[in-house]
Amino acid sequence: MGNNGPMSESGRTHRLDDRPPTLELDALTIEFRARRGVARVVDRVSLEVWPGEIVGLIGESGSGKTISALSTLGLAPRGASIVGGDIRLSGESLTAMSEVELRRVRGDRISLIPQDAMRALNPVLRINTQVGEPYVIHRGDDWATARVRVVDLLGSVHIPSPAERAVEHPHQFSGGMQQRAMIAMGLALEPELLIADEPTTALDVTVQAQVLHLLREIRENHGTAMLFITHDLGVIAELCDWVYVIYAGAIMEQGSVESIFAHPSHPYTEALLKSTPTVHTVQEELVSIPGQIPSPFALPAGCRFADRCGYRFERCATEPGMLAVASEHAARCWLREGCPGGGSLAEGA
Amino acid sequence: MSAPLVEIRSVSKNFAGSGPFWRRREVQAVVDVDLEVLPGETVGIVGESGSGKSTLLRIILRLIRPTKGTVLFEGHNIGKLPRRELRAVRRRVQAVFQDPTASFNPRQSIGAALAAPLEVHGIGDRAARARQVAETLELVGLEAAFVSRYPHQLSGGQRQRAAIARAIMLRPSLLLADEPTSALDVSVQAQILNLFKQTKRELGLTFIFVSHNLGVIRYVSDRVAVMYRGRIVEWGTADAVFSNPQHEYTQTLLAAVPDADLGKRREPPPPPTA
To answer: Which of A148, B96, B156, B249 shows a CA-CA span of 20 to 30 A to A290?
Structure first.
């Protein structure tokens, strides 16, 4: 651990050029107003996805991972409002854009791969009509041209006999093929950023492995940056370069996949790893995390994991900042204070 | 060796297919399955969607009847039992399902839901039933105050605890679980899996545990059956099946599981392209 100074703003050592991050959430804060009060579901979340990088955002239900991603597309549900921070796509602020401008970004520069492809596809339209729509809407192609391009696109996501399959309806596709069709649609205009929201959760493991392989292939061939949202640590280990661990609306730990899995440095990440049943090793006892995630209506003043944390001590009554653990790794935990190679990591604005 | 608690003998189940009648073909959900479950052990049944694992479980529960074959519970053919005796078997065989929200009546308090199995089987008076409800709640790690709560006031993990409590109210000898943790977050899943192991120890239960999650199956099971297209393609101790899989399908399945163990990462990620 040679690097004793504060981390570079991104902490990524493998940045190869001086392009801005493809996606940057800068202290993003999102609140819901309800009769019970104000729920802060995303709390000063800062996150970067660099060109060509696959970044994992891992959290349990209610952690704010999906809403962070949907806000990037300007698709946050009704009642949610961005009360602080900014979202930038290759340096350009998305929060400042009008709905009309955003509509040009969605599907063209950013695509979303949803969890449930069956529900995302329109059951009464043929696959080529749906997958080809971006060409017509964003590029002004006519439908005949778009349908020809769809066949190539379906071939590139390894759908067998793409010409015949293109004219079928979604229910004629298996779950894995539906997800491939969604990925094809997302790739149509070669977006800068692909946001994948639990795209393999509904799939069988063997199909999941194929889809993950496809996503890796896309990154290799097109250099597409991806934000991959999941609750599955295994998928993160398999696919991602960099990970953010989100809990109760805040990033608790961030770092390279290698570093985080080798040395989980936030008690929450450690507990997640120890509570996941694995296939390739024998576990005597799974460690379960006692209690529950705090309500976003009443977040604790100090560390939001403290109530469930086995290492809790006095300092946890105040909220820790992101503390560097290593050159490519930081955790929001007082235990990391004065870590060798550590020190305070300046948080994004 | 003790006599098996459950014996499944060449059981098959066909379902009517869909489509117009000239193209309609029967779907073979379970094909010629043999399985033996010894008292006190946990048998895990693992497979992907459509492998027939849930159908097999429903046959054991006698929620559906097999097209062919027999299921023996303590040596009795449950397909042939007269009503009264079937009722006695039902008392000793209980189940926990995937979605605890769907398996509770939203208008019934947890206390009433837990007392229901006792009432149905005419066990104890009101006071005795209340005692047993309290005892069982404690066993699954829920406070006594949950008696008066309603399902919507519980978190997913608490609801699944309540479902387990209801399943063990009658102190069954066999508990079947169909994907009981699939809807839960991992940290909660670990709580529930540990609870299963603990209740099994404390009550001497026999378990049949169905899941698509290989890690979960490895963690809870003594012996494992791997199902593929309606058949059991591999059967053995959990250790043998997971560390030395013999069938090609089991090998494929295990290789496909992404593991939070970086040593198992099949290929290093390529450097980001500029």
So the answer is: B96
